[in-house]
Write a structure and sequence with these properties.
- With 608 residues, the protein is mostly helical.
- It is built from 23 helices and 5 strands.
- Helix 2 (26-39) packs across helix 8 (163-193), helix 6 crosses helix 7 and helix 7 (144-160) packs antiparallel against helix 15 (348-364).
- The chain is elongated.
- Residues 468-474 have low confidence and may be disordered.
Length: 608
């Protein structure tokens, strides 16, 4: 029943050779990977005005030069991340760039910041979209948390169904939002050009304003730069693109940059010309739409698509978080389970963990996560700064053809991003100080996990292990995942028994792994029969259970007993079991109550 329910929710399993069909074309990739960046148009311009209004409405004209500064930063980021895409075509973004050019610690700071930031992306975006819905329907306000949680579960399930399926569904609302804002900006500019908007609503550019200061302008610039969150997502998700991945990713990045620049500039200019003042109960985009169209169908169309894009901006996190987690897991800084593809070829463990942590955050803050936006923004600009600095050092060190221009782009981007990051700490410290607490904790956890994996690897490596003493017992089937001291220990136990036959069972996901392991096994343990069961759906349990069924039927004919021995190593600390043995426990659970099968475990106790 559970299996049927799972199939209903996420669909049939896909074979590994169907991975190419799960790749994204540029149109779908633009929709799901740019949703976070494009949605920030709904609040980025407003953040500028919120700072400037502390001086007075006369200061609103400064939003124009500030917007130009944000566009310069956007251009630097787009050009820089385009270079990162071609320099690091396997993805990883800021984490890989920082790790390879600045060292392990800057890399972990980037990776940890982005992991947390993607969780915040989901929580903040879904909460903001839910607020837009409950504002339109006040009777739903008391159910804000429940609605937000339902949206997170829906997006999580959609992503578990596969990248292309989620892109097919989510692309429409994203493009509807873009069309809606183009209509709004186009009609607004037409009204201005035809004199339908009074020039008295705003102060002229260049008007002296008392109380303005460089610090205030930098604060407004930093706040407006929150519109650039999500720009890095494409560089993290290069493996999701169809071939040639770097070319398609760079074109998608450029398209996102152009769209973001047009929409951001248009909203800032209309807000300035219409003399819009930020209000707590109505967004700037809503005020512009009402001034342009009144309360008609187009107004509600813009409001509806804005609410949708805010919710669907969470999907950027679902696209980038699992791939970043894969890179960290490959380097052994987080559990290896994040490298395993699910039934639909997505990294389902990363998707599920992201959904669960986002729900926890939404519940913890009662669905009111808007004050996390500065923390969300600074969590992006720390990796921005480190990745730009890393690329600057890369060009200085390698000096490839045309490196001078690349150096200027990355150096300028690094300086601007550093200034923005510092402005967040100086002006919004009470909202972003927690980053100084959780980042060291995350880096400490990364290192503890890495140290544990290294200690385990050292103990399991055959060349460094002590000889295995003779053991008494009986075994027929022995599932193995590699050639380690745990396996050697288990085989020694098996050989000490009076078994008719010992069969080692290896389940590879790729044909290349199958032939490679067979060669290694033949040279290492030629007297033990090896059976390989290729699993195109990346499942270990199902092929093993089928094989056990076959052996059990044969053994029953001759009145023999089938015994399955499961190798398992016991960490010194109990919580380390989270990092290991999940598959062993699942195999044991599936075989435990078989009538004609004895299941036993051979433990190997780690010394560290």
């Amino acid at each position: 029943m559970l299996s049927t329910f799972k199939r209903l929710l996420i669909g049939r399993p896909l074979k590994s050779n169907e991975l190419g069909e799960q790749k994204l074309n540029k149109k779908k990739a633009l929709a799901i990977l740019s949703s976070d960046a494009l949605s920030s148009v709904a609040y980025g311009p407003e953040q500028i005005l919120i700072v400037l209004v502390t001086v007075g409405a006369a200061a609103f004209w400064y939003s124009i030069p500030i917007a130009i500064g944000v566009l310069v930063l956007l251009l630097a980021l787009i050009l820089s991340y385009r270079q990162i895409i071609f320099a690091y075509p396997h993805g990883g973004g800021a984490y890989v760039v920082s790790k390879e050019n600045l060292g392990i610690y800057p890399g972990l700071i980037s990776g940890g910041s982005l992991l947390v930031d993607y969780i915040l992306t989901v929580a903040v975006s879904v909460s903001a979209g839910t607020d837009a819905i409950t504002s339109a329907f006040p009777s739903l306000h008391e159910h804000t948390v429940l609605i937000a949680v339902i949206f997170v579960i829906f997006i999580t399930i959609l992503n578990l169904r596969g990248v292309t399926e989620s892109a097919s569904v989510l692309a429409y609302p994203v493009y509807l939002f873009v069309i809606a804002l183009f209509i709004l900006i186009g009609v607004g500019l037409y009204n201005i050009a035809t004199g339908q908007v009074s020039p008295e609503l705003h102060t002229s550019i260049g008007t002296p304003v008392a109380g303005i200061s460089l610090f205030l302008l930098l604060k407004a610039f930093a706040s407006g730069s929150s519109a650039l969150t999500g720009v890095e997502a494409i560089s993290n998700a290069i493996p999701n693109f169809k071939s040639p991945e770097p070319n398609n990713a760079s074109k998608t990045l450029a398209a996102m940059g152009v769209l973001l620049a047009i929409l951001f500039t248009g909203i800032v200019y209309l807000a300035y010309y219409y003399g819009i003042t930020p209000r707590a109960d109505v967004t700037v985009v809503s005020q512009i739409a009402e001034e342009t169209f009144g309360r008609n169908v187009l107004y509600y169309f813009i409001q509806g698509t804005t609410a949708l894009i805010l919710i669907l901006a969470a999907n950027t996190g679902y696209s980038a978080f699992p791939l970043l987690a894969v890179n960290l897991a490959k380097d052994k800084f987080i559990p290896r389970m994040f490298t395993v593809r699910g039934d639909r070829l997505g990294y389902s463990n990363g998707i599920i963990i992201l959904g669960v942590l986002s729900i926890v955050l939404i519940i913890a803050f009662g669905g009111q996560t808007e004050h996390l936006i500065p923390l969300y923004a600074v969590g992006v600009f720390i990796p921005f700064t480190l990745s730009q600095t890393g690329m600057t050092l890369k060009w200085l060190r390698e000096k490839p053809k045309g490196w001078g221009g690349k150096l200027v782009i990355n150096a300028a981007g690094a300086i601007i991003c550093f200034v923005v990051t510092m402005m967040f700490f100086l002006t919004k410290f009470e909202q972003v100080w927690t980053v100084l607490v959780f980042l060291p904790i995350i880096i400490y956890l990364f290192h503890r996990i890495k140290k544990h994996y290294e200690a385990v690897g050292e103990q399991l490596r055959l060349s460094t292990c002590e000889p295995v003493p003779p053991i008494e017992g009986n075994v027929i089937l022995l599932p193995v995942s590699g050639i380690t001291h745990v396996v050697e220990h288990s085989i020694a136990y098996a050989k000490s028994l009076s078994a008719n036959q010992i069969i080692a069972v290896y389940i590879p996901f790729e044909r290349e792994d199958e032939s490679l392991f067979e060669e290694k096994w033949k040279s290492w343990m030629p007297d033990v029969r090896l059976v390989t069961l290729h699993s195109p759906y990346r499942s270990i349990i199902h092929p093993l259970l089928k094989f056990v069924d076959t052996v059990e039927r044969k053994a029953t004919e001759f009145n023999h007993q089938v015994t399955v021995i499961i190798p398992q190593f016991i960490p010194k600390k109990g919580w380390h079991n989270i990092l290991h043995n999940q598959t062993s426990l699942m195999i044991r659970a599936h075989l435990l109550y078989r009538k004609n099968v004895i299941v036993t475990t051979v433990p190997y106790h780690l010394k560290k």
